[in-house]
Specification:
The protein is α/β, with parallel strands linked by helices and about 325 residues long. It has a 7-stranded parallel beta sheet with strand order 3-2-1-4-5-6-11, sandwiched between helices. A two-stranded parallel sheet has the order 7-10. It has a two-stranded parallel ribbon with strand order 8-13. It contains 10 helices and 13 strands. The protein has one domain: Rossmann fold (3-Layer(aba) Sandwich). The chain binds nicotinamide-adenine-dinucleotide (NAD).
Length: about 325
């Protein structure tokens, strides 16, 4: 199999590159390093079946050059941060909507067998009922979610109009090794970095808002299942654990696992913050997927990685 992984030098993308390079598939990793890092994929550079392209999904001509002979595209490249989307809504739209349209259009022109599109649970907005299935209304209150809704609709349009084989993955909050722990990183990684350094987690608002945290190894299995699924899956599919945890509980779990004595600090709530997200994963289960990691198991594994490997890995000279 020859795969194009857009956003392949990012958090999730680099784990997928690992999976397929080690499997012996040919992987083309396209990333413009807006949020990704060479450190995430440097160890793959010596493999003959791995090619790294520093480029942009907004560059249609480039996509035409690299998508001619691929069997499948896993499309992850996106501006992923809610807070950045509030500051830069246009950039978010250009990357997440127009970039996705480019990927779909070139896939159509070159008859690519399968496109697996990374949507997100953020398209739903706060839960109107729980757990949230794929029919939950799409009420994202922020530009990031809105851009992902638009990208999803574009996927539907290519499915309906051209009969393309596009699957819309809706992972709930992901975490694990290589997730950014600074700037607009994931809360879980940032809390861990702060706790390890003896600093208290900073919580926006009450901390009673909840998320369904999914460990990266589980989502890699989910992508692999969908990529290899023998029949077309032309629909959105949720991937989560089905259990939500409040941000305040998450902060205390992390403080405990880091072995610190810290009290979380509360600051003003962020605009457009979603209050509750929890997945109904019945559809994914029917395909044979089951998450292996509860939040406690995943956090333990993540913090162990953070403690033992992170410093050495990131300290390697560039
Ligand atoms: N992390 C999560 O909790 C989560 C949850 C649900 C869905 N998702 C989706 O999964 C995908 C991957 O998320 P992630 O957490 O690995 O994020 P990430 O930011 O680590 O990965 C995205 C990658 O895309 C690259 N990129 C951004 N704009 C680009 C462009 N114009 N051209 C080429 N590359 C570009 C970035 O440099 C980055 O390496 C995203 O589409 C995201 O919306 C993530």
């Amino acid at each position: 199999m020859k795969l194009l992984i857009t956003g392949g030098a990012g958090f999730v993308g680099s784990h997928l590159c690992d999976r397929y390079v080690k499997n012996g598939d040919t992987v083309v990793c396209l990333d413009n390093f807006m949020n990704g890092s060479l450190t995430n994929v440097r160890h793959l550079l010596g493999y003959r079946n791995f090619k790294l392209i520093n480029g942009d999904i907004r560059d249609y001509d480039l996509l035409e050059k690299i998508m001619r002979d691929v069997d499948a595209v896993i499309h992850l490249a996106a501006q992923i941060h809610v807070d950045r989307s509030i500051i830069e809504p246009r950039l978010t739209y250009e990357v997440n909507v127009l970039g996705t349209q480019n990927v779909l259009e070139v896939a159509r022109v070159y008859d690519v067998d399968k496109v697996v599109h990374a949507s997100t649970s953020e398209v739903y907005g706060s839960a109107q009922y729980a757990p949230m299935d794929e029919n939950h209304p799409l009420n994202a209150p922020h530009p990031y979610g809105a851009s992902k809704i638009a990208a999803d609709r574009m996927c539907y349009a290519y499915i309906e109009t051209y009969g393309m084989n596009v699957c819309i993955m809706r992972p709930f909050n992901l975490y694990g090794p290589r997730q950014k722990d600074s700037g607009y990183g994931g809360a879980l990684s940032i809390f861990t970095k702060r706790a390890m350094g003896g600093l208290p987690p900073v919580i926006y608002g009450s901390g009673l808002q909840t998320r369904d945290y999914t460990y990266v190894d589980d989502i890699v299995e989910a992508y692999d299942l969908v990529v290899k699924y023998p029949n077309p899956l032309r629909e959105p599919i949720n991937f989560g654990t089905g259990v939500d945890v409040s941000i305040i509980d998450l902060a205390h779990k992390i403080i405990g696992l880091c072995g610190k004595d810290l009290t979380p600090v509360h600051v003003e709530e962020r605009p457009g913050e979603v209050q509750r997200l929890v997945a109904d994963i019945s559809k994914a289960r029917k395909l044979g997927w089951e998450p292996k990691y509860s939040i406690d198991e995943g956090l333990k594994k993540f913090i162990e990685w953070y403690r033992n490997y992170k410093v050495e890995e990131w300290a390697k000279p560039r």
